[in-house]
Specification:
By secondary structure, this protein is of the alpha+beta class. The protein folds into four domains: 107 residues, no CATH class; 103 residues, Elongation Factor Tu (Ef-tu), domain 3; 140 residues, Threonyl-tRNA Synthetase, Chain A, domain 2; 129 residues, Diaminopimelate Epimerase, Chain A, domain 1, CATH 3.10.310.40. The chain contains 15 helices and 26 strands. Strand 11 and strand 12 form a beta hairpin.
C-alpha cells in the first residue's frame, strides 16, 4: 500500500514519496512490534480465561491491566472473550480508565493567576543572540499555584534570556537591582511571550533590573546545540539522506538527538560520525548566522527544515560550512566550531519503530568521560596484573568462567535429578492422584520450574506443590494433572494465588501449571499446610 499512498499524497506530503523505502520499513517494524504485543497478550489472556473459567466472566480491572500493562487493546480482549463464551465487565474497565485519566490530570494540575500589568502595550525584545546582560523593566507578572509549590512568571520589556525552544532548554540567571538578587530558574515561551520563572517577586516591581544570564550554562548548552547540527549533517552523510530529526534535547550536560533510521548503528558508523564532527571542530569553522532570511532563499541554500514545523516568511539560518551544515534554527550557537573542544557519542539506541536516539557530550564533559574510561581501563589492567595482551587475558577469563559455569550446571542437574527421585519416592496416593507437597533446596527459580515440569512429564495423575527458599526469596510451583482441572475443579492458577499470600507475594499461570514469588520465606511451611488441605478437600 505504501507506493500507492505516497503517490496519492505526493502533492501534500512530498516527504512520503522521497522516503518511501524508509516508511515501508517503519510500517513493517510497527507490524512486527504489534504482533509481539499480540502474542504476549494472547498468552496472558489464556491464563486469565483459565482463572475465571468457573464464572465465564473477565473482571474489568483485569481487562484494564491487560491493556495498561501489556498494551493489549480492550476491543480485542472483548472479541476473544465473546468467541470463547466469556463476558467482560466493560463498565468497570471504563471506570478504571477514567481513574487513570483523573490521576494524570491531578499530577499536572495548576492554578494560573491573572496577569498584573505594569507597562501596558510594551513588546518584549530578545537581545540574547548578541549579549548575556541588559537592563530591563518588568512589563507584567502573575503567580502560578501548583499542587506542592508556587512560583511567579515575569515578562520583561527586553531580555537576554533564551526561551526554551527547538530542543534547547531555557536560560537561567538573575535579575539584580539595589543589592537584591532574584533568581530566574527557567525561561519559556507562551503565545510569543518570553516568560521568566522565579520563586519570588522583586521588592520593587517598578525598578530597572540588570538581567544576567548564567554564562557558563549558556556556553555549555550552545556547545551541545552546535554539536547537534554538526552531528545531524554527519549522520546524513554516513547513514543516508533518509535521516531526519525526530526530536531533540540540548542542555548544558549533553545533547540528545532522535532521528529516523531503521536499524542499530554499527560501531564503525558511530566512529565515522564522531570523526566527521571532530574534524569540523578542529577546522574551527566560523558561524555564519543569517537572520531574517526569506524562507524560499533559505531553502534554495539547502537549509534543513524539520518536517511538521511551521515557519514564517522570514527565518534564521545557522551555517557551519555551506557544503556541510545548513539548518533553520532559532537557538543559540558558538561563534566557531573550535569552542566545542571535543565531541563524543556515549549511547545509541531505539526509542520507537524507525526512530533511533543518540546521546553525546562535548568539551569538558567529553574530556572527563574519556579520562574516566582511561581510568577504568587502567584499573582493569592492574586487577589482571598488567597483562601484555589485555584482550587475550579477558578472553581467557571468560573461557574459564564458561567452563566453570558448565561444571556448576552439571552438578546442579545431578542434584536436581537426585531431588526428583526423592520426591517421586515421597509421593502418596489420594483417590487416584499422586500427591507431592514438599520443600526443596535449589539455587535458581528456573531450576524449580524445570524440576516441576520433569515431574509432571514423568508422574501420571500428579498433583504437586513445591516450595523453595531461593536466595532468601520464597518460590512456589504448582502442578495439577489436566484431567483433574475439570473433574475436581482444581486449578494451579487459582491455587497459587491463595498459597502466595502466605509469602506476601503473587503469581499465576495455566490451570495445570503455575508459579509465584514473594517476600516472606517464613510462610513456606504454611503454604504446604494449606496445599495439603486444598488437595484433601478436592479428593476427599
Amino acid at each position: 500500500m505504501i507506493p500507492t499512498l505516497a503517490e496519492q499524497f505526493s502533492d501534500i506530503f512530498p516527504e512520503l514519496k522521497k522516503q518511501r523505502d524508509f516508511v515501508s520499513k517503519v510500517v513493517q517494524e510497527e507490524e512486527t512490534s504489534f504482533l509481539r504485543t499480540l502474542d504476549v497478550g494472547l498468552r496472558k489472556l489464556d491464563q486469565i480465561k483459565g482463572e475465571y473459567q468457573d464464572k465465564k466472566s473477565i473482571p474489568g480491572e483485569v481487562a484494564f491491566e491487560l491493556y495498561d500493562t501489556y498494551g493489549f487493546p480492550f476491543d480485542l480482549t472483548a472479541l476473544i472473550a465473546r468467541e470463547s463464551g466469556y463476558t467482560v465487565d466493560e463498565a468497570t474497565f471504563e471506570r478504571e480508565m477514567q481513574k487513570q485519566k483523573d490521576r494524570s490530570k491531578a499530577a499536572t494540575a495548576s492554578d494560573t493567576g491573572d496577569w498584573s500589568v505594569l507597562l501596558d502595550g510594551t513588546d518584549t525584545k530578545f537581545v540574547g543572540y548578541d549579549t548575556l546582560t541588559t537592563e530591563a523593566k518588568i512589563v507584567k507578572y502573575r503567580q502560578i499555584q501548583e499542587k506542592k509549590s508556587s512560583y511567579y512568571q515575569l515578562v520583561l520589556d527586553k531580555t537576554p534570556f533564551y526561551a526554551e525552544g527547538g530542543g534547547q532548554v531555557g536560560d537561567t540567571g538573575v535579575l539584580e537591582t539595589n543589592g537584591e538578587h532574584v533568581f530566574i530558574f527557567d525561561t519559556k515561551k507562551e503565545n510569543d511571550l518570553i516568560v521568566h520563572f522565579t520563586k519570588k517577586l522583586p521588592t520593587n516591581l517598578d525598578a530597572t533590573f540588570q538581567c544576567v544570564v548564567d554564562s557558563k550554562k549558556r556556553q555549555y548548552t550552545q556547545n551541545n546545540h552546535s554539536a547537534t547540527h554538526l552531528m545531524h549533517a554527519a549522520l546524513r552523510q554516513v547513514l543516508g539522506d533518509h535521516v531526519q530529526q525526530r526530536g531533540s534535547l540540548v542542555n548544558d550536560q549533553l545533547l540528545r538527538f532522535d532521528f529516523s533510521h531503521f536499524s542499530r548503528m554499527t560501531k564503525e558508523e558511530i566512529q565515522q560520525v564522531e570523526q566527521m564532527v571532530n574534524e569540523r571542530i578542529r577546522k574551527n569553522i566560523q558561524l555564519e548566522e543569517l537572520r531574517k532570511t526569506p524562507i524560499d532563499e533559505a531553502k534554495a541554500m539547502g537549509a534543513m527544515a524539520l518536517f511538521g514545523e511551521k515557519y514564517g516568511e522570514e527565518v534564521r539560518v545557522i551555517v557551519f560550512d555551506r557544503d556541510f551544515s545548513v539548518e533553520l534554527c532559532g537557538g543559540t550557537h558558538v561563534p566557531a566550531t573550535g569552542h566545542l573542544g571535543f565531541f563524543k557519542i556515549i549511547s545509541e539506541g531505539s526509542v520507537a519503530a524507525g526512530v533511533r536516539r543518540i546521546e553525546a557530550i562535548t568539551g569538558l564533559a567529553a574530556e572527563t568521560h574519556v579520562r574516566e574510561q582511561e581510568g577504568l581501563l587502567s584499573s582493569i589492567k592492574e586487577t589482571l596484573k598488567n597483562p601484555r595482551d589485555l584482550q587475550k587475558a579477558v578472553d581467557g577469563l571468560l573461557s574459564e568462567r564458561n567452563q566453570l559455569q558448565k561444571q556448576i550446571e552439571s552438578l546442579q542437574q545431578e542434584k536436581a535429578a537426585g531431588i526428583k527421585q526423592e520426591l517421586i519416592d515421597k509421593a502418596y496416593s489420594v483417590n487416584g492422584a499422586q500427591v507431592i507437597t514438599e520443600k526443596v533446596s535449589l539455587p535458581q527459580a528456573d531450576m524449580l520450574k524445570q524440576l516441576a515440569f520433569n515431574l509432571k512429564n514423568q508422574v501420571d495423575a500428579l498433583v504437586m506443590v513445591l516450595a523453595a527458599n531461593i536466595n532468601d526469596k520464597p518460590q512456589i510451583a504448582v502442578v495439577v494433572d489436566e484431567k483433574f482441572t475439570q473433574s475436581h475443579y482444581l486449578q494451579a492458577g487459582q491455587m497459587i494465588k491463595k498459597l502466595a499470600k502466605h509469602n506476601q507475594g503473587g503469581g499465576g499461570g495455566q490451570p495445570f501449571f503455575a508459579t509465584a514469588g514473594g517476600k516472606d520465606v517464613n510462610g513456606l511451611d504454611k503454604v504446604l499446610e494449606e496445599a495439603k488441605e486444598m488437595i484433601s478437600t478436592a479428593f476427599g
